[in-house]
Every structure is written in C-alpha cells, then in structure tokens.
Amino acid sequence: MKRKFNIWEGNFIYTLLAIVIGFVVGAILLSVAGIDPSVAYGSLYEGIFGDKKYIVYSMVYAAPYILTGLSVAFSFKTGVFNIGAEGQFVVGSLAAVLVGLFVDLPPVIHPIVCMLAAAVAGAIWGGVVGLMKIKRGINEVLSYIMFNWIAYYLSNYIVISKSVKDESVEATRLVKDSARTLMSDKMVIATGCPTVNWGFVIATVCAIALWFIITKTTLGYQLRAVGLSKTASEYGGISSSKIFMSSMAISGMLAGLGGAVHTLGMTGRISQFAGQESFGFDGITVALIAGSNPIGCIFSGLFYGAMKYGGNKLTLVNAPKEVVNIIMGTIIFFIAIALLFKRIMVSVSEKKNSDVKSAKED
Amino acid sequence: MLCRKETTVGNASNVDMNEVAIQMKNIVKKFGNFVANDHINLTIHKGEVHAILGENGAGKSTLMNVLYGIYQPTSGSIEIDGKEVVIEGPEKAIELGIGMVHQHFMLVQPFTVTENIILGDEPRKGLVVDKESAKKKIMELSEKYGLMVDPDAKIEDISVGMQQRVEILKVLYRGAKHLILDEPTSSLTPQEISELMEIIKNLTNDGKSVILITHKLKEITEAADFCTIIRQGKYIDTVKVDEVDENALASMMVGRNVEFKVEKKDIKPGKVALDVKNLHAKDYRGVEILNGLNLQVREGEIVGLAGVDGNGQSELVEILTGLMKAESGEITIEGVDIFNKSPKEIFDTGVSSIPEDRQKHGLVMDYTVSENLILQNFGTEKFSKHGILKKSAMKKFADEMIEKFDIRPRGCETRLAKQLSGGNQQKVIIAREVTNDKELLIAMNPTRGLDVGAIEFVHKYLVEQRNKGRAVLLVSFELDEIMSLSDQIQVIFEGQITGSVKGSEADENELGFLMAGGKKDEA
Ligand SMILES: Nc1ncnc2c1ncn2[C@@H]1O[C@H](COP(=O)(O)OP(=O)(O)OP(=O)(O)O)[C@@H](O)[C@H]1O
Ligand SMILES: [Mg+2]
What we know:
By secondary structure, chain A is mainly alpha-helical. In chain A, helix 3 packs parallel to helix 8, helix 4 packs parallel to helix 6 and helix 8 packs antiparallel against helix 11. Chain A is globular. The two termini of chain A are 22 Å apart. In chain B, the strands form six sheets. Chain B has a six-stranded mixed sheet with strand order 6-9-10-3-11-12, with helices on both faces. A six-stranded mixed sheet of chain B has the order 18-21-22-15-23-24, sandwiched between helices. Chain B has a four-stranded antiparallel sheet with strand order 2-1-4-5, covered by helices on one side. In chain B, strand 4 and strand 5 form a beta hairpin. Chains A and B meet through helix 9, helix 10 and helix 14 of A and helix 10, helix 11 and strand 20 of B. The structure holds adenosine-5'-triphosphate and magnesium ion. The site of magnesium ion (MG) has 6 residues of chain B, from helix 1.
C-alpha cells in the first residue's frame, strides 16, 4: 500500500493560497479607493492576456526577474541572503552596455561577450562581499546594501560622463546593434513586439542549469550541506569559506546576467537612475514565491513580469499601478506565514485522518 | 559484574501503588504507514521510577513525545492523575505537570545557560527580564541537586555533559511533577550518573514520578521500580525490577541472548600511528585546557582515554580532527605532520572519527541517510564523475551500509537523518567512519545512546579495525567500555596524561583513583 499523498504537506497549495489572498487584499484596497476591483482586474487581465503581443511583452519583462530571482534563490540554498542582487544587476548592466558601446565584434559573438562581462562584473560585486565575510567576518547583509549604493552612484556617474552619454537624453547612447539580443525581424512581425529577445530563453536555460547544479553535482551537495549545517559540513571536510565564496559569486553572476539581458534585450541603454530600480530587490520576491526552487523561479518570474507589465495598464482605468506592488507585498507576507499555517494544516489533517482511522478501528 | 543484582533505590521505594499518576492506554502512533507505537500500555504510579527499555528505534522516544504532546497519538488515550486528557502540545503537558528532558538537546546555542533555562518562563521585574533572580534560583537548584553549571557560559562553548545538566535544570526550574528523562545519562560520566540517581531518588521522595529511558541495564536495576519493555513498537511486558536480572532484561528486549564480553584476539601492536607531543591548548575562555599532553597510539592497538569530563578530552579530539587550533606542540600521523591542519587535510592524511556531538558535527540532519553517508567522500571517483554525483552508486552504497550496520528501518536511505531514532543516527555515523578505514579511528563515546545489542555490534567493529592493524583511540565516559576494549588505558587529568594502565590489568578502583588526579605510585 502506498502512502496517501497529503496535499497539505507540499508547498504549492500555500503559494496558490497566498496569491489568492494577495488579490483579495488588492481588491479590498481598490474598493476603498473607490475603484471597482472587477474593472481594475479586468484591465489587468486584458493587459496581460488580451493580445498575443501582451503575452510576449510579459515574457520580455519577466527575463531579468527570473535571473535576479535565481540569484537570490541560489544564495538561500547556502544560507546566505543576497540582498545585494540589486547592485550586482546594476554593475552587470553597466558592463554589458560598456562592452556593447565600445567593443567591435560580429553579431552573436558580441552579445555573448557582453553577457560574459556582465556575469564577471556581477560575480566580482558579489564575490568581494563574500571575501569580506570570510576574511574579516563582516556581515554580508550590511556590505551587500553598501555595495548596492556604490553600484547605483557608479552607474549614474558613468552614465553622464562625456564619452558614454547620449546628447539628447539623460542616458547612455544605445549599444551597437551587433550587441543586442533582439530576435529576427520575422519574430518581431510575428509577435508584434519590437523588443522580443532571447532573454527569456537565456533565463530558462540558467534556471535549468542551476537546478542541475543544486541537485546533481558535488558543488550543489556542498552548497546545500553548508546551508543546512555549517558545523557538520566543516567536520566532514567541506570548507565553508570556499563554499560561501562560490555561492556568493555565482549568485552575483546571475544577477549581473540579469542586467545584461535587460539592457541588451529591452532598453539598449542605461538611463540615469532617480532611485534604485529594484530589479534585484524584486528578485527576492520572485525567489520567495518560488520557494527557492530554480524551476519555480521561471514561473514566479513570469508571474512577476506579467504583473509588472499588466500593472502599467491599470492607469488606463485610473487605478494606481502601485496596486500591483501591494498585491505582491501581500503575497510575500502570506507566503512567509504559510510556514506556520502549513504546520497547523499538516497536524490538523493528520489528526483528522487518525480520527477517521480510530473511529473505524473501534 | 553485570549480572550482580543491586537493589539500593529499588528497596527504599517510594511507590504508592494506590495512586496512578500517568496511564497511557493502547497508544498507537503511525508515521505514514510506519507504525512506531503499536498498542502500548503504560501505567506509572506516584513516586515511582519507571524504566522503559527497548532497542534503538523501538519507539520509546515516540511514546514519550506522545505523552509530552509533541505528537498526537493515532489512537489510544492518556490519563493524568486519574483524568482523561488530550495533550495538544508541550504547553498543555507542562500545565499538567509533565516535564521532559529530550534525548537530543533543545538548547539555543548562542544563548547563555541562564537564558536557556528561563526561556519561555522568564521572571520579570517590570518590563525587563530579571536575570539576576533567575540566576539565583538556578544556582540554588543546581546546588541542591548537585548539577553544576556555569550560568553565564554560552551553550555553544560548554561540554555535552554540562548541556545535559542544563536540560535537566530547565525541567526542574519549571517545577514538573512527572518527569520524563529520555536517555539522560547517555552523556554523563559515571560520577554524574550516580549523582543523577540520587536526584531521582530525591524527586520520588517528594512524590514525583520519573520515567527513565536508558540503555544501561545497570541503571535500571539500580534505580527503577518497574520496567516496561518495547520491541519494534510492540508492548512486550512490564516487570517488577526486583524480580529480574540484567541478562533477562537484555534478552527480553532484543529477543535473543546478548554477549557482554568482547572477543579480542592477541596481536602485537605495530609502529606508532598517532604521536602527540607536548600539546598545549586553551579553551574558549582562554584557560589552559591541555597542558603538555603526550599520547601515542600504535597500529593494531586500541588506546582508551579515561577521564572525568572536562579534563581536556573533548578539546584533544577537536584538535586531532581539525575543528580547534592548539597553541603549541607536535601531532603526527604515521610521521606526517597534522598539527593545526584543516579537517580535510587531516582526514586525507589518515584520520577518521566518530564525533562527540552527532547532531552538530556527525550529521547534516536535513540530509538523507545516503547523502550523509558520503559526507567526506562525495568527491571521490566512487560517488562522482566530473563533479556530478552518481546517484545510483550512492544508493547502492547506502543499501550496503544499512544492511551491514543494521541501520533501521531497512530501506531508510531516502529518509532524512533527523527522522531516524537516536541510536540509528549513531549507526549511520559509525558505518561511514568505520568504512572510511583510515590509519587512525578516533571514537568519542561511540556507543552513546545505543542499545546493548547495538553496542555489542559497535565494539565488534572497533576491534575489527584494530585486528586489521589500524590504530584506534577510544574516548569514553563508560569505564566498562574502556576496560573491555582497550589494549592500553591512558588517564587524562587536567590536560595531561597522568597514568597508564594495561587494558588487561585494569581495575575500576585504580582507574577511578587515577581519574580523580591520584598518582600511580600512591595507589
Ligand atoms: N518524525 C518521524 N517521521 C518518520 N519516522 C519517524 C519519525 N520519528 C521517529 N520515526 C521512526 O519511528 C521509530 C521509532 O523511533 P524512536 O525515536 O521512538 O525510537 P527510540 O526507541 O527512541 O530509539 P533510540 O533508542 O534509538 O532513541 C524509528 O524507526 C524512527 O525511524
Ligand atoms: Mg529515543
């Protein structure tokens, strides 16, 4: 006899529940603000699924979120909280754009080199924080946040410097066409989305690769071991400092790659920031919704990208697009308390089962 | 000696047969389809010490967790002081006067002893926690029961023995009427154990009842009034301890006869494998804990390190395995320097070890059994190729180990280590370390928490390593274990080896004298 599957033991149902609650809370707030939630959600839905083009746009939007989500999820596996994905994303964008502007390379090769540069930049940005943690014992959360600001100001400084600034806008010039990751004109016509690009494919490949690393390789074995028990891992001869370094560098690499995918695919340039853009911070949301599962990040990244994209259209019905942020915040909140909820549900349903059983036994 | 009947506490019994304190009826507890408790009955009277005996994985801790409200029984009922109750959680259990000292410590590592004891029941002065009065109360309890602790030390810095004492104090601090002690003595020294037995006696004098889980038959015959035997989740019998002897208990529990004596063939030890010279080290407080220690273990020899807890044996083992740095000295394995090297370098040079704290160092509790079995060897050709794990080789190896080392339940390789019973967790570590088959095997309390059948088993493996020409350093608080296994016994006192006795000539009194700091010629 096989053990009966208890739906309350998985994570999926709680995530789903949290999402539903998120929308309910959003609806309540909309009504309070005097906006009919059905109209607002209707336009949100329309904005995402109303046209094939919109769906493609959502995927384009999702790519960088999937990558920053992966970055954060990966760090969680080793027990590190990569709140620095934001800064890594920025230096990644910067590296990609600079190589895209100043290096001459044939198509295909050019974006690959840009992405490599971005990955390296992100890895260094995360790796230095790792180095400070293991060599000097400096709390990584603090240095991550500092590095976010350093990246932010560094980017703004470079964006307005003479050699890279566009003459007419507060942004860099557009990268060379050879550096873009745009898909062919045929695809643009077929999808109706002018910025349709390889970002989503790249992100998906990364997610699968990461899943493979975590579950199938010796590196993944060590990463998880250190995340679960640093003492036992060290006892077993795993050097936790080395593992922290690799995990923080790989995590930075992913966020950096996110920056490249975003700039080479969608924007073609970096604008001057008025505040932190929050791709990295949103990666935390994506990772949490995915329960740190790399494959899950593809879906939660898509969800997040779609909500961001669709949310823009809320203004059409005079609803503030911040509603999307509130919904997302609520979801995270409920996912966080889902752990507690899960415990209760598992014990209640176990009890119910056993009540039924003992009633039968009598 | 093991068969001798000792009836000290048993005779001066405080049992009030007319007053039932705890009654568990027909308790069934299932985990999925696995039946951990299969219709178990247990009756505890006021003032009674009731032992529960069973092999590793028999379901003792599970039954106690049911009583303490951690698990809900699948079926069955519980009465406390004559009233049927549903114990929804530990809070309810505490309210009913039940206190439990768990088999594995439930302490917050970075907190101090005092903070841990008062956790959840903090005395207040206005809005702030009144640590001073708590400390006073703790010191009183500690003095009254002879449970010496350092109230300001952090848990992560103190020895396993002291952690256990903190756990016991925690329950006493909450004023429990019915105490469950799940293997409280497994990490205590003989001295501490007799003190604990004294405490138990005081408690029953007060009309409290004590449920005592232990694998040490001697403790049962010394301290318990009744003993309930469980085998593979099933209730076997409840016996009056006065009416049975240790052999009878052992065979009731295992279902066969158990050999207490280890067969050891005579072999000549070879060259020196482990050589420690003039080792100095300081503990976490900066106090000198090893004081110029010299120690040698030769190939084909088991050296037993005997000593009262806190004389430097834990630190010595941590230094030998690379977890702690020494101040000065020399350590070599087969002539290769391993002084202050990393755990990995030391392992590769030829040292494997069974650690003192199995949950902190021995196992990644949230890894499966098969993942835990390759903790040091995941990178070898056997288990990986080009950095990719060979899952089928891992499974095959785990199946082999489970079979060979009798890890229960069978087919547990995909279970998380934390889902195994304590004794079976220990067997996972032993399987891994013995199979590593290094020049030196360090075993620190290797049979802690094992049932008599399993102990027989572990001893067999230690002797087998020796017979193969490996060096074995056995550190144990069990004098019986040291005496029956060691070729050579070294006594450690205040960070130095103060005496040395041939295993075959050892005598408990002489060792006790040396362990207390006596010099050999004075004996
Ligand atoms: N949470 C759990 N999930 C699944 N199985 C469990 C769980 N806890 C215990 N078990 C199983 O129940 C059985 C009984 O375990 P228990 O811890 O009660 O044994 P025990 O008698 O205390 O053994 P030991 O002397 O080794 O401590 C074991 O086979 C164990 O693997
Ligand atoms: Mg147990």
